[in-house]
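Onboarding guide, step 5: your first structure request.
Type a short instruction followed by the sequence, for example:

Predict the 3D structure of this protein.
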Amino acid sequence: MKSEQVKESLRKFTEVLSFNYPAVGWYFSSKKLENSFVFKKDKWVCMFMYLKLVVNKGKRIRFSGDNDSACTGPAEFFGFAELEDDGGVFLAEIERFKKDLELSKAYTREAATLINPPKGQYLYMEKLENIDNSMEVEVVNLFPADLTNLAKLVTLSSYDRVTSLDNVLIPDASGCQSVFGIPYHEKIQEKPKSVVGLMDTMVRNFIPEDMVSFSVPSNRFIEMANNIEGSFLDKNFKNPTSF
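The system replies with structure tokens like these:
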């Protein structure tokens, strides 16, 4: 969806909800955009060490298959490189996020089914308000201010759906999967789901304590924004607080 449309939808959200941090958008491009932060480190780094560059400094981060010695997660989960099969060692024996090697290998097999080919040579993560209006935004990351605002986003995700139990995912996934890989996969589904993310305990070391992501494919983001009017979030609706 065009950035201009997505920004208008964000305006609707900000009129009725509160957020701790600016919304972030993701888009593909074949161009090396100037003033982009690129991982060029001779040691391991996590992309979330630099999230503050995006939300606080207005920088953009560029991802591709060339991640040097940084974490391989973005390159793999964003579709730029093959998902490495280490026999389950990393998750089971180093991070200890899985009880044994077989469970770790099963996780990797499942993760591989959620990876989609990139639409361009580069993928950019940038504050949504700064993205050029001509760009096609794939995924939007929102950062609700508190549990009440998160609850409202969860409720809106089911507002126009027949079923109400599975319209929002809280996956046991890496941070990069939760903010882009999985929401991007949802974008091509018949009924795209929202994704609550940043539940990766390692990633929690690099982000503010009050930061939780609520990620939505751009097509679903616009649908949800258009559903605000007439819903429980409508500014003209007096929501009962007692019975």
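Each response can be followed by summary notes, for example: Residues 3-16 form the longest helix (14 residues).
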